[in-house]
Design brief:
By secondary structure, the chain is of the alpha/beta class. It contains seven helices and 13 strands.
């Protein structure tokens, strides 16, 4: 019996569900401190624009803000994020998704800049041990799927709960909570070998959370007619994803106050 229990226990631990449950309980346990609550769990979605579908692990809410969360457990995993711009400092800007509906009108949804505390490093690359060099990088794959789910949920919520005579706004933050250690790798481009693309004695630093930002979509929901140059269009296609080490998730939520910032900065006016 002991042997069977050990096998079954290992089987349970090989899945990601216990980790997801632990994250959910952590949010509930500290709700009175940070004010965030569980809005939905294991929520089915389908994006009519790109045809993708799936389940959102967790959605938490506070006021008009929603964190759309993908829980990702990795056994002894490390995610390395190269930071290669000289003297790059931590950033507070984040390109988030917003949805808005006016009385008796069709909903609008897009992506815009806002300041989101706390600040963190930002990178557009992620190196994960064991990745297939020929396959699409794991974080880009997960991130693209997460972005699609955010947009699908943005439409769904604002249509389902919007009153025909009232304005309604939502801000949606794509987020990956992971058990992996997050490390930044400070690279100096001048010290990278042009011969074989290697670097010697790179500097590493563990961080509690990081912004991952790059062009993660092939086509956007709202492509501005002003984006007539490829460079501008590429910038418009950028998305931000917040990546948080699970041990530091409550710490992050305690510092993340967005209501006043949303009113002041109006991210729906900075689309592009």
């Amino acid at each position: 019996m002991k042997g069977e229990n050990k096998y079954l226990n290992n089987l349970v631990n090989s899945s990601g569900y216990p980790f997801q449950i632990a994250i959910e309980e952590e949010i509930k346990h500290h709700r009175n401190i940070h004010g965030w609550s569980i809005y939905l769990r294991e929520h089915p979605w389908r994006n009519k624009e790109d045809g993708s579908e799936g389940f959102i692990d967790l959605i938490i809410g506070k006021g008009v803000v929603r964190f759309v969360i993908e829980c990702k457990r990795l056994k002894e995993g490390i995610w390395i994020f190269p930071v290669y711009r000289e003297n790059q400092k931590e950033v507070d800007k984040f390109k988030s998704c917003w949805s808005y509906i006016e009385p008796n009108k069709e909903p609008n949804i897009g992506w815009g800049e806002l300041s989101m505390p706390p600040s963190s490093p930002q990178s557009d690359f992620c190196i994960i041990h064991g990745q297939d060099e020929k396959a699409k990088p794991m974080l880009e794959r997960i991130g693209g799927f997460l972005i699609s789910s955010v947009e699908a949920f943005g439409y769904e919520e604002i249509l389902a709960e919007g009153h025909p005579n009232l304005d309604k706004l939502r801000l949606l933050i794509p987020c990956i909570v992971t058990s992996a250690k997050l490390k930044i790798c400070n690279l100096k481009p001048s010290e990278i070998s042009i011969k074989d693309g290697t670097v010697k004695d790179a500097q590493f630093k563990e961080v509690p959370y990081i912004r991952f930002r790059k062009s993660l979509v092939v086509q956007g929901i709202q492509q501005s007619s002003k984006a007539i140059r490829l460079k501008e269009l590429d910038k418009q296609m950028e998305r931000s994803i917040l990546i948080i080490n699970s041990v530091h998730f409550t710490e992050f939520l305690n510092q993340c106050e967005l209501e006043d910032i949303i009113i002041r900065e109006k991210p729906w006016e900075t689309t592009g």
